[in-house]
Amino acid sequence: MNHCIRIIVDFNVLDNPEFLATKRPYSFTPPNSYNEDLNHETAAAFYQNSQCSSKIASNYSGNNTQHHEYDEYKKKLKLDTKFESKCQQSKYSATSFHTSNYLNSKTTTIESNIVHLMFHNNGNNEDLDCTKNQGAKNTLVHQKSNNLVTFDYLQTFKIRSKYFDELAKTENEQIRLNIKDITKSNVDSHIFEECINVLKNGWNLDFLGIKKEEFLILIWLLYDLTCYSESNALFILYKNLLPFIFLYLTDASFFDELNFFNVDFVNHYKYFLPFIYVLYDTIHVTYNSIVKELVFIEKEQVTTDISLETHDIDEIIIRITPRALELIINENFEKKLILLNHIVCSYTIKGIRISRDNIFFTEIKDLDLACNPFHENTSLKMQTSFSVVFNNINLIDKSLITSIEFEKIKISDIDFNFCMALRNLKSLILVHCDIEKSNFFFRSLSKNFPKLRALRIIGSILTNGFFQNLSLESLNILDLSCCEYKSDLKFYKCPEMKYLQEFHINYSKMNYKIINSMMLSAELKVLSMRGVDFYRLKYFENCDNWKDTFEYLDLSRCMLNNFFLDFFSANIIAEILILDHLCGITHLKRILSQKSLQRSTKKLSLSGSLVDADLLSVISGFGILESLNISALEENTNTLLNSNYNYLNNFVSLNPKRNKLENASLSFINQFNRLAELDISDVCLKAGFMAYICLPCLIISLIKIDISGNLLCPYDIFQIGLLINLRHLVIFLDNEVFSEFLKIYGNLRCLNLETLILCSTTINKNVKNLIISQPLLKKVELRKCIIEPNIFTINCSSEPVFFENKTFIVSGESLDFTQS
């Protein structure tokens, strides 16, 4: 990206705006601070030396009329001393200001009401003190007339614009735009100048003179510019604009109450969304554009990040914790709460997710961990207060809410009543929740939620009333994991589940009649019975008409009695078969010996099971098997892999991780010339093992490999670069070994790599250069890594463009280095 581009903005509304571009003839060095107290001769010389080309600069420096215009412009930018002194005397902090003492909707400007509400920092951070920049205001804006604004867009801007970034990526040194190319708002040259000055320098008190009718124009312009900041400058800007929004929306005709029903707010609500990030100092607000979640969690530390990457939000899912709800209530600031309600409810709310610790059952990939009752103390539940915080229920279109997910909470009566009114609910997930009226709730499922498709009740006591009211023709997914049936079996009656496609009872204690009811569904495709003790089920008489063909079948950790062992050993068809930690190798051999499975199974997992040579012989007969997981086996894996069994050449994925392997044992993979995925993490391989992987066939076929937890030598790292089609790499890098590699071979470049996951690695300058040198990289994840200070500060990098449109995940949390 160019270090500088001159942008000329024309404020005449033209049908065909003229674009002027000049090729960059010289390199550009960013100027030092521009002090407005300079006399105009010095200023003219400084301006001349600071431009992108000397030719352009000379056009400005030789004109006395322009010097006069500059003097007039400089005078206009001078701060009124009374506002400066008021700001210096103010002792209000961001955590304590209240607008009720200063709101006066009858004034035409905001300056008289707002000066006491500025955001200050009582610490040592200079960026947070609004008085710091008043003596020397840095600006590169030069206006030749009321209809033309010229400025240089520099790397030194405290707040950057992705719109201007795109212009800077071109080979142009100068470009001319019409204002309507930038924004559809009715912004004039004065507001535009002030906005550019704030992008350059951060917050300043000149905004105090903004008129109420100009406020919408300003935030509209900020929105269209797609602003971001490497520092806290953008956070400070919106924090200091926050009181403006209260004044802007205050309506004198309604006794100075906030009026959210005026045309401006209703039609332009999306421009107000960034204020939600700065409303509460104790709440961290983020937006996940991938899953469309607006997230509210309590702050563990002071954060001042803000993102305007929310441009095209049309619908949201609210994700919040009970603690965050409690903190909002404790703030006890009515106008903030009203603003929160109206901004959030301006969007289509599709779902609500509340979890005690912001961890959700449905997001945990390890089912054993998710279902483990000793995983955490599920008895410590906080009562929800969603309907207390979002108390303007009339603003929420309940007919559009299609999903509810509550976890490890006590559902209050008011939230219970709110949920019962969601007639169009399609997904309901309750995990370890306390519901005072649970019996009534479960008996009313079919009546209140006629369109329900997915029902997940996790960790509850279920009675006959629940099953008798499952007459939901639309229900496709039923998950009763970790549940226990406690009722009189004589009165059990469950309606026929004709359209049930998925049935999950992982680690549950169900009755045989319940299982029988679900197994009769002709549409059943997914059956997960992980961790079920079938010895408890003694009264099965037959399995006539049970579904025996599955897309996904999970019997991991099951204790199979004779009845179920007979059923799952007779002509079962399963495309994906999961038999992890299955009790008894005899059961394994009997199940896997079925010809029907050998003809149908494409993916087989035996992780943690007891596997011997005879069982491997059985597996070698699976004719269409593409994926095999033999991780963490109980048997000596080296002996097994060195057995003389030839597998049919269909393998696409192989996972022997968490076994103890010798380098030579990897030679068995040379028979798989279609292998695309290989996971050999944590198998204690010694340096030099890549020689067994970089075979002619695998160099072309391998797309995804995990070699973390093993020792590498410089030549191993070099051989990674030989994998032509490698797109996904998981690796541990020892800094000394990697430094030695760089000395011998130069940098590692994987031309097709899209995902790089670094484990237990110290991220220093060498590793950073490795990351930014991958041309197609889209995602970087750092697991248990140590990051040296300032490594990912873009100001210190010559490749800031690399960080755009990339996903960075550090310890499970997504980061955006272009905005933080």
From TrEMBL:
<protein>
    <submittedName>
        <fullName>Uncharacterized protein</fullName>
    </submittedName>
</protein>
<dbReference type="InterPro" id="IPR032675">
    <property type="entry name" value="LRR_dom_sf"/>
</dbReference>
